[in-house]
Write a structure and sequence with these properties.
Blueprint (H helix, E strand, L loop, with lengths): L3 E6 L2 E8 L6 E4 L13 E4 L4 E13 L2 E11 L2 E4 L11 E3 L4
Antiparallel strand pairs: 1-2, 2-3, 4-5, 5-6, 6-7, 7-8
Length: 100
Amino acid sequence: MAKILPIEREGKRVGWCFKCPACGNAHKFCTADAHDEGWPVWTLTGTQDNPTVRDSILVTVGHGDNPPDVCHSFVTNGQIAYAGDSTHALRNQTVDLPDF
């Protein structure tokens, strides 16, 4: 089963997403052939079942005056490795990407 899915808007592919087991949210990334205006471009290799994404994916979510939540990860061969600057319980760990 697919670990990443395309995001489409008005019949055009504008990115990809995966479920993040640490945050419980979907994280979006764009590629040269699936790009959304204003987003950076990552490189996707492999398949939807076994993806590798380069460079890292950094997601920050602010909460008013509190420090933001940080999810910083690398997706390699269908696994997600969380960087040490992540603020959730899976930082510095590597786990399988869940199926979408």
